[in-house]
Structures are given as C-alpha cells and as structure tokens.
Design goal:
Chain lengths: ~200, ~230
Amino acid sequence: MTHSLHRIGRESDLKEDYVILAMVARGLNDTNPEAREKLIKIGEILEQHNPTNMIIKPAWKVSTVIQGAFENKKDVKDVLKVLKKEDLGVSIVVSGLVSEITQVLKDIDLKPHTIHLSLGVFGKKERLPSEEILELTTMCGHHCISSQSVENYVNLIKKGKISVEKAAEKLAKPCVCGIFNPKRAVIILKKLTVK
Amino acid sequence: MKINENRCTGCGQCVLVCPVQAIHIVDNIARLSNKKCVECNVCYRNAQCPVNAIRPTRLKWPRLVRNPFSDVISTHKLTGVAGRGTEEMKTNDVTNRFEFGEVGVSIELGRPGLGTKLANVELFTLKLSKIGVTYEKASPLSALIIDEVGHLKEDVKNEYVLSAIIEFKIPHEKLPEVLRIIKEIENVIDTTFTVGIISRVNDNGKIPIVKNLEDMGFFVRSNAKINIGLGHI
C-alpha cells in the first residue's frame, strides 16, 4: 500500500501537505488486546492537532491503520512530540518532503528508520491528464478520485455554481482513507480556475 | 457492477466519479463497459444515484480478482490489510522486513489512474524472476504467480484492475539489474506505473542507495514516506 507515496506537486506546494499514518504489525503487535485502544488513542492525538482530513471514525474500530492529512510542519511536529512521549509502540510513518520531515525529526530528537522513496511515474505518460489534475487526483493514492470529476468541479467553480472550498470538500469524499488534503486542494483549484 | 438501465435517468453522476471512465451516457442512459469496469465500487459509493440504479453484482472467478486490486475497502485474505498493498516498510521498525544491505521495490502498474490488464504484470515478473528477487508473500499479487519463472495464472491475465503492486526485495547489489528492467519495460508497456524504493536509513541520516539511483539516471522525488522508528513489540 504505497498510497501516500506518489503525490504529485512542486516542492513549494508539497510544503503544505503531510500524511501521518499509524499501523500495527500483523502477528507481532496487532494481537495484544491493547492494540485497538492504542490505535484509537493515536486517532485522538491526530484529531487534536488540526488535521485537514482523517480516516472516517467508524473505521477506527476495525482498521489496522489510522491516518490523517496535515497542512503544516508545526502540527506534524506537535503530533510526533506527543507520540514520542506516549511511546505506544505502534509504527508511525510520515509522508511529505524529506527535507522538512528530517528537520522535524531532528528538532524532537528522532531519527528516520526506513524510507520509501518515489522514482515517479513511468510508461505511457502521454495518456495521463494534466499535471495540475494529477496534483489533485494523486492525493488519493488508491485513485478513487476521477479526473473528469476534477474537470467538472473546475467548470462549476468557473460558472460560480460552487465555492472552491465546497468543491475541495466534495472531491475529498471518495478518499475513504482520509489522506486527500482539502486545504491543498483549495490552492490547486484556485490555480486551475483562474486559467 | 451493474447499472439498471430501466431505472437510469441519465443524470451522469456515475460518469463523473468513475476513475477509469468505464461509464458513458448513450441515448440518455448510463452504459457501463464490463470490459473497462475494474469493480472498484467508487460509483456505487459516491455517485449518489438519485434512483439507486447502481448495484454491485456477485462476482465469479476470474472477474472476482478485479475487486481486491481496485476497491480500497476490500481486504485481501493474504494481507489482512484493506487495499491492494501490504505493510511493506510501514511496520519495518517492528518486522525488520528490510534490513541494511537490502532494498525493497514496489512497482505499481496502472497508477496513477489508468488501470492495467493483469497480463502487464507478467512483463515484469518474467524478467524479475530470472534475476532472482524475493516477492512479498503477503502481497495479493504474489498469490497469482504460479511458478518460479514468474508466470501468472492464465485465467486472470485478461482482467482489468485499477492498479497492481509488485512488491519484492533484493540485495543492494542487484538494484542496477532491476532498474535496467524498469527502463526496458517502460518502452513497451501500454499503461503507466510508479516505482518506489525502500531502504533503511543510516544513523547519520544518509540513504546509501540514492547515489546508485542517480548514477543510473533515475530522478529521486523530494517527497517520500518515512518510518520514524517508534514501533516496537
């Protein structure tokens, strides 16, 4: 599940886009009775630090992962500080710009353990929609957001039939993992609609 | 998936949400291409069909295989994880699946958004198996590889999915061979694919494989996933 890895965007835009994910390891630390309580606790910690989106609440009781999207480094740092202090033993993965995350970790005396690097997209790239549309659709790593849905909302915004904020909220809906960042989507939609 | 054409009013909501453009309005009715539909259930969950004309159908083998590779909510028996991937590096601080000197590779065919025929997987697995890679056993895709040569089950090859992830690990020294295979296949495949590379990070923060990747002409993107080492038993 490489779902937060290949988010497309310029470095300056990605500074406002982070995903924090917590996961228990199957057969190792998912079996103890406290594992669910720990995941729910992490959900509550994420919730207290201004996530722009999160996995839906009913999933907290069954999912092996809890995750949320964030728009700034400060909130990410604050979340990680609490998680370090709580020492719950659940694996934590942060997605975003390597330079920014590394700095956050250094500030709170943590070190990267393992990294998943993206080499990008290969093959028949000429079949893909525009880069700006991909910036939106790739925020759902399972690709549940269609390019024609983006185009539709861009048209509706241009016609004044929907606000940029409402369109971003509606685009986020198919992303059940809750890692589509609607705050970043507002910025991208604004760029797309002034064209 | 099935759209009840007798109920459909042709509003087009389902056309807009379909990630693989398998639905089109023809004569004011939504028509679903069974060939292109990847059984992701996105239309069922998100089109808000005003007349409830969209209904999932009971899938039979081999069409059944489309669902776990396309529907994020579908949990595969092998992985225990919702979605089409595995824990990979996300729990590496607990599992130690990837040690120093090893490289994990994830090749996701059909991403971002074009989808793929499962036959495309074999383009990779026939070459990767030849150089001796260790496939991730918990991956739903590994269950479809039937021999050491890298052949896929014959009856699934024509099935379309939203994406399929080939997950494997290799010793660091084999990375150039894998990168060569990626370059070869990029020129012949009819869809897109993404590539991810997993590595342990040295105590000094250095990632030893980055230089190898750049030397081979690959561009390492500035955003990544980082396991921060808080997991333990």
